[in-house]
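Record format v2
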Amino acid sequence: MIDLLFIGLSFLAISGAVAMIVYANPMYSALGVLISMLSVAGIFALLNATFLFMVQIIVYAGAIMTLILFILMFLNIKEEDLPKEPHKFKFITFGALIMIPLNVLILKAVSKLPSKDLLLTNTDFGDMGPLGLQLYNNWLVAFELISILLLVALIGAVVLAKKRTTRVKHVGEVS
Amino acid sequence: MISLTSLAFVSMMLFSIGAIGVIARRNIFVIYMSLEMMLNGINLFLVTFARYHFNMDPQIVSIMVIAIAAAEAAIFLSVIILLFRSKKSLDTDIFNTLTQGEKS
């Protein structure tokens, strides 16, 4: 049962990723990424990472992909705004050939490791409580730095997206 | 079936497809989503090894990666809005203001 669930989720994750690089319309690509993110969240749940399962659904699928879809609709992209990509599949084949050695290396290294069964356990591994204790005891500096990073990103996004008419006109004249 | 090698295969597939998207596509939105896909593959790898070694530190690194991806999304999307406003295009080949030679 668990094996079947894992095979289905991984198939959905990989096919969503393939749909992302194949479709020309970015809206379909975003929906493919959404399917892939939700499937990866399912695999997290199979690996006992219950808190990460929720974080993945809330942050990735709920916030980041919704933001991308919102910006896509907000920009009102027409068919003629999309870049023409006549050699797309040639480049995809080329990229796949480049990525083969890295994949072979990693998979060979991983398959040499002693095998363990990675089934679901009944312990509280990956639950919110133990994970929070670990986060606040051993990773406190990183946690605080992440909070500062998020604050800076928030301010930076507001400053960048603000309308600056004079500046934009100047850049248009130069180019 | 749910072994270390199959999980590593899935996460490496996600990472590789993301890298191929960065190489092959010219639409700036698809390039951004490919970057997210690479981060997702690495997250899956980290969580796999967290379960393998029964240690929760990789999961915390994974939470950090998700937080950085959220910060990156805000900045990247506002930069995309600026670029689209000034150039009216999503093609990455148009954004070549810093190149020498002919101007677009």
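Chain B touches chain A through 75 residues (CB under 8 Å).
Chain B has a mean pLDDT of 87.
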